[in-house]
From TrEMBL:
<dbReference type="InterPro" id="IPR052048">
    <property type="entry name" value="ST_Response_Regulator"/>
</dbReference>
<keyword id="KW-0597">Phosphoprotein</keyword>
<dbReference type="Pfam" id="PF14559">
    <property type="entry name" value="TPR_19"/>
</dbReference>
<dbReference type="GO" id="GO:0000160">
    <property type="term" value="P:phosphorelay signal transduction system"/>
</dbReference>
<feature type="modified residue" description="4-aspartylphosphate">
    <location>
        <position position="64"/>
    </location>
</feature>
<feature type="domain" description="Response regulatory">
    <location>
        <begin position="14"/>
        <end position="133"/>
    </location>
</feature>
<dbReference type="Pfam" id="PF00072">
    <property type="entry name" value="Response_reg"/>
</dbReference>
<dbReference type="InterPro" id="IPR011990">
    <property type="entry name" value="TPR-like_helical_dom_sf"/>
</dbReference>
<dbReference type="InterPro" id="IPR011006">
    <property type="entry name" value="CheY-like_superfamily"/>
</dbReference>
<protein>
    <submittedName>
        <fullName>CheY-like receiver protein</fullName>
    </submittedName>
</protein>
<dbReference type="InterPro" id="IPR001789">
    <property type="entry name" value="Sig_transdc_resp-reg_receiver"/>
</dbReference>
Length: 547
């Protein structure tokens, strides 16, 4: 049987009260007890509150918005809803000072069920809780379906409840509209939101219209709707987020960045927004904004569900523009912060080879920008060791490694790895472009020098009669198109000598045939002409004997 009094509703509930001031926590708990609550936990800050929510199932959470340092009340709500630790059937009430009400009402991703403006009396608390908990009771059956992700059931129940409870039409239509969007039924959702807006242009309905227009590729209409909504509700932050997406779709990255900067100014504690702002600013080479946004994302995400190694990697990269070989004050400060950030990432993600690989690539480029070539090469080699043991490295990781090789003047290794990437069949358009761009950075002179070094080692094997080892090395050297005629002739020599001793094989004869083509005609004036003639005659003889 459904309770009809506030005392009856509160008595069985598990409740969490959150406030950073001890007097306020005590007063809130006392009020709730007087009103009929039997199970009340209290938390003194956002971290403690999140820990409580993660380990308990609460029916009602009442939180102050401003909790001092760390998470605020909105962040607690966002994370709890995002992780589904706080069910849709549960109630979240936000307490806020009157001077902050406009900001709180606009800066919302997941909205509270109700607000109470501080200071308040027990009578105010009684009236507000009584009203919202009764509404929650009436919507319980719909929210149960939301919690089980039964979208078709949600839509059916919404239609039924709209007939039975017309006074709750706005709340029910809002749930239905969100559900339709989650099902990609954008035209149906648009029709619903437009119906609401025609009766009463509430902000969420206007945002719903703009969202559907965006997904239906009606970008001009969506932008117009958003500007109209922002004019009426200047701090409705999601409007700026959607404007940014519109400008991104039009490839107007600077306008998209400006939109997100406005959103971040209204609501600075949303991790995902700070990450997106950082990425946009970084792409726009707005280093100051990128650094600030990524620093904020690391700070905010450190103890949240949004924490990711990407927060740390992007922040480290955003600081690199301050590095210089002169190693002045700004460069030293930036490098210290980069290495500290990378160390923290490695400690937090110690089991992830992928994460460690990324940190060593960034460490290598950092040392490179500082002019510390030996340290840069050492970090690149650590990254290479990790890449080698990855069972299925991505093309992006391989290209990053090739770029690190190039930066540390290991051009031949870069070319080897880029050859592997080039043979992949799963390259995205972005990776293909990045591959071609990276290829352009390979120095022909350095690769030729590398093949000469391999050639010298092969000669040592050849002179000791270790022909198989010499051939293996020369195969490696001749795999580069930059290999010189001397290297190609040595490869011919080793293979012809091997066949004279062991007998001709089809594979080796084909190898020599390819070498002959690559060498081409050597003029009689060239000092290598006589040797070329002798090797060619030996090759022709071996061909005849093999028939």
């Amino acid at each position: 049987m459904t309770a009809t009094t506030l005392e009856g509703m509160l008595a069985p509930m598990r409740i969490l009260a959150i406030d950073d001031l001890v007097e306020s926590r005590s007063a809130m708990k006392k009020m709730l007890r007087i009103l009929g609550a039997n199970h009340v936990d209290i938390a003194m800050d956002g971290d403690e509150a999140t820990a409580f929510i993660n380990h308990n199932s609460y029916d009602l959470v009442i939180s102050d918005y401003n909790l001092g340092r760390g998470r605020d009340g909105q962040q607690i709500l966002e994370e709890a809803r995002f992780t589904h630790k706080l069910k849709a059937t549960a109630t979240f009430v936000m307490l806020t000072g009157e001077n902050a009400m406009d900001m709180v009402m606009g800066a919302i991703e997941y909205e509270p069920d109700d607000y109470i403006t501080k200071p308040f009396t027990i009578d105010v608390m009684r009236k507000r809780l009584n009203r919202i908990l009764k509404v929650k009771q009436e919507l319980h059956i719909i929210n149960q379906a939301v919690d089980t992700d039964s979208k078709d059931a949600v839509l059916k129940l919404c239609d039924e409840q709209l007939v039975q409870k017309p006074r709750l039409a706005l709340r029910i239509k809002r749930i239905k509209g969100r559900t339709l969007i989650s099902m990609n039924r954008y035209q149906d959702a648009l029709d619903l939101f437009q119906e609401v807006a025609d009766e009463r242009p509430v902000n969420w309905a206007m945002l719903g219209i703009a969202t559907c227009q965006f997904h239906l590729n009606q970008l001009d209409e969506s932008e117009t709707t958003l500007h109209k909504t922002i004019h009426e509700h200047p701090k409705y932050v999601q409007c700026f987020d959607l404007l940014s997406k519109i400008h991104l779709k039009r490839k107007q990255t600077k306008k998209a960045q400006f939109d997100l900067m406005q959103a971040a100014q209204i609501s600075p504690k949303q991790v995902l927004r700070q990450m997106e702002l950082g990425r946009l600013a970084y792409a726009n080479q707005d280093h100051e904004v990128a650094e600030k946004a990524f620093r904020q994302s690391v700070k905010l995400a450190r103890y949240s569900c949004y924490r990711s190694v990407k927060n740390y990697l992007f922040y480290a990269k955003s600081l690199q523009h301050k590095l210089s070989e002169s190693n002045g004050r700004d460069s030293r400060k930036a490098s210290t912060e980069i290495f500290k950030t990378l160390d923290e990432a490695r400690a937090l993600y110690r089991e992830s080879d992928d994460s460690h690989f990324e940190t060593y690539v960034i460490e290598s480029t950092t040392y490179n920008l500082m002019g510390r070539d030996a340290d840069a090469a050492a970090a690149a080699n650590k990254a290479a060791g990790l890449l080698e043991h990855m069972p299925t490295p991505t093309s992006g990781q391989q290209i990053s490694m090739a770029q690190a090789y190039l930066a540390t003047k290991q051009h031949a290794k870069a070319q080897d790895l880029l050859g592997v990437v080039d043979a992949r069949r799963d390259l995205s358009l972005h990776d293909r472009r990045e591959l071609e761009r990276t290829k352009e950075g390979i120095s022909e002179h350095v690769v030729r020098q590398y093949t000469t070094e391999i050639n010298d080692k092969a000669i040592e094997y050849f002179e000791r009669g270790q022909l198989s080892q010499a051939i293996d090395l020369l195969n490696q050297a001749t795999s580069y198109k930059e290999a010189g005629i001397a290297v190609l002739l040595n490869a011919m020599q080793a293979k012809v000598t091997y066949m004279d001793q062991k007998g001709a094989t089809k594979t080796l004869l084909n190898d020599v045939k390819d070498l002959v083509k690559r060498i081409g005609d050597i003029p009689p004036s060239d000092e290598r002409y006589s040797r070329w003639q002798k090797l060619n005659k030996s090759y022709q003889r071996l061909k005849r004997t093999a028939r």
